[in-house]
Design goal:
alpha+beta, Aminopeptidase, 16% strand
Amino acid sequence: MKFERITHTDYPELKRFFEHQHYRLCVYSLPSLLCWSNDIYQPYAAVLDDDTLLVAAEFDEAHRKDRHLIMPLSRNGEIPPEELAKLLKASGFDACWFVPEDYIAGYPRISELFEVREQVGYADYLYRKDDLAELKG
């Protein structure tokens, strides 16, 4: 499996994987993945069998411990935990971050395959539209 760095020029090719994904966390937005790229964090991706996208977060040497995958985006539906464990092993990554709570709740035996813990400090957030329009707080 070969991961390649992705940039804004890859948007047209990768967009198809994000169009029907159902995860509600902002990390599952292609523009979000791309716009946060910097000297510390860079997004990488690998396409499997033309229907599944693996997205990896790579970091500079000082933050290497934070490297991870996010949930695979498959045009054929959700990847079950057993398959996710195989993909993690094959990819060379030790962790999958930003796993939605409803995914975890849907697989009661997931803790038999993974250490499941809350990512304190990475909570998603919502803004009131009026605050955004007026740039308050």
